[in-house]
Amino acid sequence: MQTFLENRTFDEIQIGESASLKHTVTENDIKLFAIASGDLNPAHLDADYAAKSVFGKPVAHGMWTASLASAAIGTLLPGPGSIALSQSTHFCKPVYPGDTVTATLTVTKKERKKHVILLDTVCTNQSGDIVLEGQATIMAPRKSVRVRAKTMPGIRLRQHDRYDAFIERAKASPTVRAAIVHPCSAVAIQGAVEVRDEDLLDPVLIGPRAKIEAAAKEAGVSLDGFDIIETEHSHAAATKAVEMAVSGEVSVLVKGSLHTDELLGAVIAHDSGLRTERRISHVYAMDIPAYEKPLIVTDAAVNILPSLDQKRDICQNAVDLLHQLGVDEPLVAVLAAVETVNADMPATLDAAALTVMAARGQISGARVDGPLAFDNAISMAAAKTKGIVSPVAGQADILLVPDLEAGNMLAKQLIYFADAIAAGLILGARVPIVLTSRADPLTARIASAALARLSVGMTYTKSGS
What we know:
The chain is of the alpha/beta class. The protein has helices at 27-37, 42-45, 47-51, 62-75, 164-172, 186-197, 209-219, 234-247, 260-268, 308-324, 346-359, 374-378, 380-385, 404-417, 442-455; strands at residues 4-6, 18-24, 83-91, 100-111, 116-124, 130-139, 146-148, 176-181, 201-207, 227-230, 252-255, 281-287, 295-298, 331-335, 367-372, 398-400, 421-427, 433-434. 34% of the residues lie in helices and 23% in strands. Helix 5 crosses helix 15 (442-455), helix 6 (186-197) crosses helix 7 and helix 8 packs across helix 9.
């Protein structure tokens, strides 16, 4: 990046004079150009489509290459103060991601009457092949200009693709029947339609028929093809759903428009038949554009102030889920405000104890370390700065939070400040329970259903104690 931009006036410019500007095109360059221009031609953006084209893979927009020549005119020759009158282009060869393109301008003519210059514009790739050639007619500046180049903001494309692999994996597994418990709002009934249409779950609707039909009417969707099991009210719907799960009629429970406590109360009742040896817990599977892989935050919705033994179960539930998703040895960061054990900070004591418990087999199938502050858990640079030597620091798969308040605040900060998408699931019962919010986007609801489908059949036994 040039610190200052200086122009060449009409009088200073000589015929035969030239200048060059070089840039290596990336996939993000292509996506940003598509966003700015609105050109969403799949030849540039869709690898499967482009594979069948004459190019064999995605190519940069032709006008992206032309814009590099235009950038050279505006910043180098003549530079600031130039006025473009015309620019012709002939596209000679495709430009692929990874190609280094050099735009070279050469002055071929000067017309003093209007202070116009003619430029040959040639763009070549790293092999010297001409990818674009043309001409530009430019009104050159008459006065010298030297200005500080503007510092442009960094741009990070917020791509949500962390869920893709396990959604496809879920779709390839056998379809499972799911009880949608009390779907008596437009959002809840729309969610049932979405997971059915995505071929992720086979939903059965449980609740007051009249309210379900009213919700469908409000949502503008048809109930054709849905099985509806009528109950008098939400409490009865929760009880019926649990009975169906115990009998094997359904393999997943999905929270509709009833309160979370009402559904979980039916699940954990002593005579429900869905309790296991483990404490139930909630996981947020986060798709965070700024983080290179999916990230689990637990527990942010069920256990308010978990004991050490309960934290062990919360941790093991999340580890077992990642095993289902194909992660052989998840990395668990036990969070606290600091990375050292402090007797006045109970979260650090629990973190240290959980680390030892994992080393002795009381938490299995994962590498657990703590206490770790949030920055050290997810940033290798932060961990190195503080001299932290840890198998987990900077690359955590699971963030085990001290309590529900910390987890809830962390998850919502990631959602609203870091543009994360959070799939919500409750584990630890004999069937997975999908827990979504009215504010969740479609992608979160689809991902939650996929997680549930993949976690069907998980068993919950205590690790060695």
